[in-house]
Amino acid sequence: MKYYVLIFVCLLLSVSSNAQTTVSIIAPPGLMDTSITAASIADVQQLLGQACGCRVSLNDPSAKVLIKLPSINRDSASRLNSFAQKATYPYRNFPAHNYTWSIKKISGHQVYELSASSWQGVSFGLYGLLQEHLGFRFYHPRESVIPHWTAGWPAEERDMTFSGDPLFDKKGFHLHTQHPLELTEQLLDQNSPNALADIRQYIDWLVRNGQNYFEFCLLNDIDRKLWPAHAKAFVDYAHSRGILAGADISLHMIQQKSFQLYSGPVNQKKQIEKNLEWLLQAHWDYLSMEFSTAEFIAGNASKKTELRQYIISWLAEHSQTKLTGRQHVVKHVNEVSTEHKNTNLDQAALALDKQRGVLVHTVMFYDMTEPNAPVYENKNQRHQFEFLLDQMKERETWYYPESAYWITFDNSVPMFLLPYLSARLSDIDTCVKYGVPGHLTFSSGWEWGYWLFDWSIARWSWQYSYDGKAEKRTPAMYAHQVSNDADANALNKGLNLQQQYLKDGDLMRWMTAMTITDELNIKGLNNAYEPRPQWSYKFLEGKAGDSIITQVQQHILPELKGFADKTAALIRDMPPAKDSVANEWADGIEITGLRALHRYYTLQYILERREAAIHKQHFSGDSLLQKATEVRAQAQQIVNRRQLHYRYPLSSIAARRWDHTSYHFGYLYMASDLHFWLREEEQARRNNYHPFFMNVWNIWRIAGIIK
User: Fold this and answer.
1) What pTM, to 2 d.p., does this model score?
2) How far apart are CA 207 and CA 124, in angstroms?
3) Is residue 13 assigned to a domain?
4) What gap in Å lies between CA 56 and CA 49, rounded to an integer?
5) Angle formed by the axes of helices 485-498 and 557-573, nearest 10°
6) Cα–Cα distance between 291 and 334 in angstroms, integer?
7) Are strands 99-106 and 160-166 parallel, antiparallel or unpaired?
8) Which of 39, 47, 38, 15 is CA-nearest to residue 135?
9) 477 occurs within a structural domain
């Protein structure tokens, strides 16, 4: 009985303590009349209430904790920001949204007073206070860390200032819904379960992380009658929260079911007008347009220029929507295309052309200035960096990197490629140095720890300062905020290990799975879009001589084994994970090491069998393939464990099913049974390197030849 009385007294004291903590948000009436601020204030009220276990009121000056917000007038909310002031070309202004908090103890009150000049600044300032100062962590659209203050409110040790300065005017994410990602169906199909709620949840995540733009790929098999109302609903919600919205479409792209403004040669401009009118029912802020027939085909340059000029003119006359276009990494396409060249235009056309924006794209976990980035037939991506600097003089220009690549490179294999962190931070620092006004991240899924990359990028798009001193930024800094230091330090060690072996040592060429274009033996169709070995596996198994075999045995096999062994040692040294985040990282790091070990055994099998054939010796290396199978079984256990914690249904993201994309399976379907690992074992066993052997892709549908 005494035990229960003691518990009751403790609970009573706890409730009494929290009841003594009174918190109030002091908000001028105008803020509650504007959805951008009203929604954020209501959300922050609820979040703070969860953290302190107390009631958070509005406009009660007697509360012990006061969060004082500024009054905003329409003139200050619409004035040109610093990027717009510097622009010498048509520029779409977004209200200045930097903010500063003054934190003081005044007459027994703990006072947080915000200075901002726009509604967006107030909104971002509120969430900045929560995440950058009070311990909230909005790391995933479906998961957050909410602190619990047993004393009712965290005590401030001293008076101070805290500020947030956006490093980019526009900053946000492109969800590449040509691929079957977490939100692909919700965005494309109004009948998808919880579609609008899931999209709003993501938009809320963007706002909580200081982002102001999102877009996705529109596909051509949406319901043209019902979808516009669905799109308008989530675009309106984005606008109500201060977020700009864009749709990624195409002029006439046949690849991956891209939405086309016209099809066929008849009445092209009338088709374009009709489709633009249909699209603009949703009041898009931006239309991001692909001008080529396919990603790797330049197309008719003069015709594209004519139609692009027509679209820019039509949009200027009928809407406030701004046209942008992507500059691909494919160098030979860029060199022959006039999509981003103006030399053949007269002065009036040049002036019109400057109204469009450009998104300068880079791929995978390489940054835009590093010397070695073997992607899309390039030595590196510096041509994109040079192009970005050049275009910034002419038009609104955003940098457009990736936080995942999906197809046979990372989360479909799967691998947890931590150098994305260092590459994306390096690129952001480069963009800031040169004054790039926009940053759009090409996002390809959030499982296997990839949410950490998007979350880090979102927060790196701001510079936070305390008492005027800028916060130092490091690649793994935010890992420390959602797990203990031991786990975060292990993640940082994993990053350094992968940087050393996969990037600096160029081992990534042997870690990726082969694509169909890698295995096609047709000149012009077998381009290397991903890093791939100097010699194909088919060549190594069927034609390699002793010198090449020796070279791979002495230089590649030891690197694969060394990386695998050091990764295994890192996992062994990690303390038992105490939270789901640390478990996710450990699984991702471990399976990346096992990927190298699996490649080690299959490659060793190939080389030894080739040696036996050359020297007409009996081959006795079947045990190597058996070891590869055992490694795959070990990795499968990790996949099975990881799938228990996916944040969206397995049936949606990790299984075969009908969808609006060209794939008809979720983006983690190949990872679910380690398809590429098994395929590599069978290729080696059967000496079968035909591009369609154990193929999961419908290449004709992806290419747009069939629907």
Assistant:
1) 0.94
2) 7
3) no
4) 6
5) 180
6) 12
7) antiparallel
8) 47
9) no
